[in-house]
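Protocol step 4 of 6: structure prediction from sequence.
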Amino acid sequence: MLNKLLKFSFFTMILSGLIACGGEGSVGDGQEQTKNQSVTEEEFTIRFSFVNAAMSVKGMAADKFADLVDEKTDGRVKVEVYPAAQLYNDDESFEAIVGGNLEMIAPAVTKLVTFDPRWQYVDLPFLFKDHDHVMTFFESELAEDLLNSEQIIRNNLEGKAFWQNGFKQFTTSDQPLRGPEDFEGLNFRVQAGSVLDSFYQKLGAGTATISLGESYAALQQGTVDGTENTFNNIDTLNYEEVQDYLTVSNHGRIDWAILVNKSFWDEMPTDVRDQVDEALEEATQFANKITQEENEKSFEKIKAAGNLEVIELTEEERAKLIDTLDPLYEEFESIITKDLIEGIRSLEN
């Protein structure tokens, strides 16, 4: 009888232990589910910094992106937009995003020359035929290769898209520009870049690298005689107050590259990242559409106001400028590369 009781007690202990183990396994599963759920529901913040004003085309596109991200991710990703260099200027923003203190920036493409000298393509004279040519390039493998070159990835960056700003036009005070000889002895405010320095040297002109925010004062004070910019920038920066002539040349481009911190982007869950990428694609379409519209509106406004005398080049005048500046292609072919130059030209419709 005693043996039977001992056997029964031993069996009961084993059974209780098995039940307990099963219970512990259930609790563990529940903890794992809770842990997975918290990871899945993790929230992310994208700090988007740029130097343009809040009401600029870039500012409007950034706000559109923020709204789309909130909608598509059900609020799991928040985009904080910091325009007008509220956090960093262009140079500082590169250090910040590489170091993980920013998640997204939208610099002018010329700023990327420090990473990859091929980005100087944007300043080559008359490389792009028209707006459609530019849009075709933005969607090409050539553009993708630039955005995600080894030099970009090596700096913990990922290129996501191009947002257009527009074709550049010349403005001057006192002297209209129709041919190469009209540039002789003038000084122009330009963005930094060896292509631009050589560009104006071939026209007999000088250059001064001055920030966009200081360009109005430089023109007003006569520090420089002229500049180059898009119709919308010429309009919104009130250049008609300090310049006399506008030459419609479409000789170069000013565009923006959208870059993100690669580590941050890779850490987002795939489904969330796909939603944010979808929002950025839609915001990019919006940006490129409204930029074109705003440039056209600004050009019409400039012509209607009559404060700037508008000079539209004849085919002969344009051809003369192209011939004068053509040697730049041979000069910078080894830097920008023949593959990129010829590749862009081949996209012309």
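Step 5 (inspection) to follow. Confidence is low (pLDDT under 50) at residues 1-28, 33-39.
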